[in-house]
Design goal:
It contains 16 helices and 16 strands. The protein is α+β, with helices and mostly antiparallel strands. It has two domains: 260 residues, Bira Bifunctional Protein, Domain 2 (BirA Bifunctional Protein, domain 2, 2-Layer Sandwich); 93 residues, Anticodon-binding domain (Rossmann fold, 3-Layer(aba) Sandwich), CATH 3.40.50. Strands 1-5-6-11-10-9-7-8 form an eight-stranded mixed sheet, sandwiched between helices. A five-stranded mixed sheet has the order 13-12-14-15-16, with helices on both faces. A hairpin with a 4-residue loop joins strand 15 and strand 16. The mean pLDDT is 89.
């Protein structure tokens, strides 16, 4: 590939693109903590992990998320590959999972199929707290059954996941947006209401009024909020099947002891949702602070070319979870520090330390060093790094086939044969020497 001459010649200090951040080692404890909890909670509910590609054919998202949604019209990172085919970086996680379900014949497996994922998501939107242009999600999908008990199970999973992380001040908001049978009557009523107030709508909502009326309820602009609060309620237009489904869901949530609140304006921002929608938010938060949300999408598999297949799922943004963990001062376990630091004095000792480090790593120990610094500087670094043991090798130790083994926290030190290091460290029996 040829680049303009200025790209070849200019020297500059590059920075991450706007809305894209580096995750530094100091933050990794939060990420490992959340990922481990996601995997363990998913296993408790019978979910297996799936990983889908970072980019897919653009049509997958246009047909599933909705041609008139903000994600498709404003936020997708789309490019043509070398063959001229339009590709898009994954802007959400459900459609790729459904594509994989169809492509790999998972409809022939015992239903429902339960899948979870940890994935990076890309949306070109205004960077905000906990939501960047590249962010990360933990998500779960249950595909192949319409039972409202599965909706309750999915909501319970999302709630227990947040609770397992240590988050305590949470609210669960719940609504039903009906199905393709009963939703047209509600949309007609909604459109009629908003047409009377069209002059008060923000620019985006004036477009939504004609193209995607249900999204009017999802507007975050202050000017539209008073109108939204007075808009018709979707629950008043549910068909008997949807009303029954929603009634059973509420009953099951009560059995599970989940403290939900009905939220008439909750619709979520994706066109594939049907019936159940829900969000988990910090107490007193808004939809822009949602830390987990999802719902049922009974028509999506069929939209993508499969047989009619009901499904329900949710996703949780990891960056927002970390913000809330910090806000609630939740202590997360630190990442394990290396077991051993190898300090050496002199070139023969350094060579001996290098061979010893390689041998200890093969036996499963995390080892740092040696470094070409003074012994005092090496010991100071070992203390800063928080290692449990420091192995010190000097000229005398090389001759004798021994090392100085120091237990850092207890400030105990003993001379031990090289061949005994592994047993002593595994037993933690330095005090008896």
């Amino acid at each position: 590939m040829r680049y303009p001459s200025w790209e070849r010649l200019e020297t500059k200090l590059y920075q991450a693109p706007r809305g894209i951040v580096d995750t530094l080692p100091g933050e990794m404890a939060y990420w490992r903590f959340i990922e481990q909890k996601a995997a363990s909670v998913s296993a408790l509910y019978g979910f297996e992990r799936i990983d889908t590609p970072t980019f897919e054919e653009t049509g997958l998202f246009v047909h599933s998320v909705g041609e008139e949604t903000d994600i498709v019209t404003k936020e997708m990172y789309t490019f043509n590959d070398r063959s001229g085919k339009s590709m898009t970086l994954r802007p959400e996680g459900t459609a790729p999972v459904c594509r994989a379900y169809l492509e790999h014949g998972m409809g022939n497996l015992p239903q429902p199929v339960k899948l979870y994922y940890l994935a990076d998501i890309f949306r070109y939107e205004r960077p905000q707290a906990g939501r960047l242009r590249q962010f990360h999600q933990f998500g779960c999908e249950t595909i192949g059954d319409a039972d409202p008990a599965l909706d309750a199970e999915m909501i319970d999973l999302a709630w227990q996941f947040c609770k397992t992380l240590g988050l305590s001040r949470l609210e669960l908001k719940l609504n039903s947006i009906g199905c393709k049978k009963c939703r047209p009557a509600f949309i007609a009523a909604l459109k009629g209401y908003y047409q009377k107030h069209a002059d008060r709508l923000c620019r985006d909502c004036k477009l939504r009024l004609e193209r995607n009326t249900l999204r009017l309820l999802d507007c975050k602009q202050d000017a539209c909020q008073p109108l939204t609060r007075q808009a018709p309620r979707n629950r008043d237009y549910l068909c008997p099947e949807c009303a029954g489904h929603f009634s059973h869901l509420q009953h099951y949530l009560e059995i599970l002891g989940l403290p939900f609140r009905l939220e008439d304006r909750l619709v979520r921002g994706l066109d594939y949702y049907t019936r159940t929608v829900f969000e988990i938010q910090p107490e007193g938060g808004s939809s822009q602070s949602t830390i987990a949300g999802g719902g049922r999408y009974d028509d999506l598999i069929e939209t993508l070319g499969g047989r009619p297949t009901p499904a329900v799922g949710f996703a949780s943004g990891i960056e927002r979870l970390i913000l809330n963990l910090k806000k609630e001062a939740v202590a997360v376990p630190p990442l394990p520090a290396p077991h051993i630091f190898l300090a050496s004095l002199g070139e023969p000792a350094k060579e001996k330390a290098l061979r010893l480090a390689a041998d200890l790593r093969k036996k499963g120990f995390a080892v740092l060093g040696p470094l070409d610094r003074s012994l005092k500087a090496q010991m100071r670094l070992a203390n800063t790094l928080g290692v449990r043991y420091t192995v010190i090798i000097g000229e005398e130790e090389v001759k004798a086939g021994t090392v100085q083994l120091r237990e850092m926290a207890a400030a105990r030190q003993a001379t031990v044969p090289v061949k005994e290091i592994e047993n002593i460290i595994r037993s933690g029996d330095l005090a008896s020497l």
